[in-house]
Amino acid sequence: MKDIFVICSKEDKNISKKLVSKLEAAGYSCYALPRDSSAGSPEELIRKSKIAVLVLSPSAEKSKDVFSQLETAAENNSFIIPFKAGKIENNLGMIYMLTELDWVDAYGDGFDEAFEVLLEILEETGERKPAKVKSKLKSASGKDSDASKKYLYGIIGILTLALIYFVFLRTPEKPETPGLKSNTTATGKKNTIPDIAGKELSKEETKIVGYWRMADYEDSRKMTPEEKKLTEQNIEIMKSKVLLTFNKDRSFIREGFTPQPQKGYWEYDADKKKIYLIPEGTDKKEEINIINLTENEMTFVVTESVEINPGNTEIVTTKLTFRKQQ
């Protein structure tokens, strides 16, 4: 067991070496790749560490290994500290996991000053006082962090409207917006394996069976050219990760929404044009409004009240299109 696992891209090996050297000189034990590759796989080393320090840079944003290690750290409930080492493009796939954290900004304020902030955070973490750590977390450049987080709050709020609701994080007890119908209803009883499992498929339902990849995204929010550009970049990342699988036995699998795939059961009502999803181990049924369904394409919409940024709420309609994979 060591104190820290340093997550970084291959291109950031020099700053990683410098960071690890200073951390170890300060008395913290570290795992760093490729130096410690003989000690175990990245996943094993992350699980053996209390804290994950993420060297956040342009190359890190594009690295599949970095994203995979970040997912493992989040799944492991590691205390994650982003250490900003370069100008970044607000990659949704990564920011989605980091939005509640403040970043230590070595890019804006210099390595030495940022490292002192990092040490303060680590000292508080070592005292096992989570509440105090929460208030202690800060960026070496407060203004940059506040502006970035305010913008990211809006981007994530819109994208997660369609994506995160699909992972059943929304609660049925949430008050409905006047004039809008909630997408979530209760089944009335808890079914580990619901009655629909194994039920014979209708002709329309056979269209749904298969693998579906996210192909397009639209929402009604008014965006500046910069916001539109960043949103398009982030959607491209989601397209490469999001996959829906609908099986003939009415089981389904969602991948790319969370570190671990989600499973459950499904059925389709052709008259109402709704897909009903029941996740494993819950007593909730989700309704997805389908506006287009063919042999190769499926489009659904969500309309809800969304907090774009603190104190600013809008009614937003989101449309997601999936295409069947051959």
Structure description:
With 326 residues, the chain is of the alpha+beta class. It has 2 domains: 2-140, Toll/interleukin-1 receptor homology (TIR) domain (Rossmann fold); 171-325, Beta Barrel (Lipocalin), CATH 2.40.128.280. The chain is built from 11 helices and 14 strands. The protein has helices spanning 13-25, 42-47, 58-61, 64-75, 92-98, 106-109, 111-126, 130-136, 142-163, 203-206, 225-239; strands spanning 2-7, 30-32, 49-56, 79-84, 104-105, 184-186, 210-219, 243-246, 251-255, 262-269, 274-279, 284-293, 297-309, 312-325. A hairpin with a 3-residue loop joins strand 12 (284-293) and strand 13 (297-309). Helix 7 (111-126) packs antiparallel against helix 8 (130-136). The termini are far apart. Residues 127-191 have low confidence and may be disordered.
The CATH architecture designation of the largest domain is: Beta Barrel
Distance linking N and C termini: 45 Å
Strand content: 25-35%
Oligomerization state of this entry?
single chain
In DSSP terms (H or I, runs of 4 or more residues), the helix count works out at: 11
CATH domain topology of the largest domain: Lipocalin
Task: Write down the Rg.
Answer: 22 Å
Name the helicity range: 25-40%
Per CATH, the class of the largest domain reads: Mainly Beta
Q: Which stretches are poorly predicted, pLDDT < 50 over at least 5 residues?
A: 127-191
What is the count of structural domains?
2
Structural class designation = alpha+beta
Largest sheet: 8 strands, antiparallel, barrel
Strand order of the largest sheet: 7-8-9-10-11-12-13-14
Shape label: elongated
